[in-house]
Amino acid sequence: MDPGDQNTSLEEFKTWKTDNLQHYLTMRGLTKEGTKDELVALCFSAAKLGQTCNHVASLLFKLESSNRYGMGACTSSACSWVVPKKVKDMQPKLLASMPPRKSNRSKSVKSRTLMPTSRKSFNPITTEKGEILSSFAIAMRGILPNACIFRGIIL
C-alpha cells in the first residue's frame, strides 16, 4: 500500500483491507465509514482528484487571502490613475448610466449620439428573407441537429 501514489488502479484498491482504505482516506482529510465497496470508490476518486491543476488552487488561495486581509478588487474602486484636471467633483458612474456620445474634440457646443434611433431600429433582414432563412435553418437542423449554431436559435 502506497498512500502517496496517485496512479493506484481500482483493482489494486479492491485488494486492500478496510483499515488500509480508511487510513488512505484519513490521510487525505476524508473520514468515511461504510462498506468496503464504498471505501474503494472513495479511495479511487480521491486518488484521481490528486491530479488537479495546482494553478487553480493557488488562485483560489490568493483570492481567499486577499479577501481575509481586506484587499478589494481593482474594479471595485474608482479610477485613480487618470484624474481629470479641469473637473473637480467628478463621481464614478455605471457604464449603463452614461449614454455613448462622440468625443468633442472641437470646441463646438453640439454633441451627437453615436447610435441614432434610425440606426438602432434598422433590420437588414426583410420578412421575405427571414422566411427563407427560417426554412433553411429548419432543414439544416434536420441534417445536423447537434450543431453549435442551433444552441442559440429558437425555431
UniProtKB/TrEMBL annotation:
Residues 96-120 are annotated as: Disordered. It comes from the Eukaryota. This is SAP domain-containing protein. It comes from Mytilus edulis.
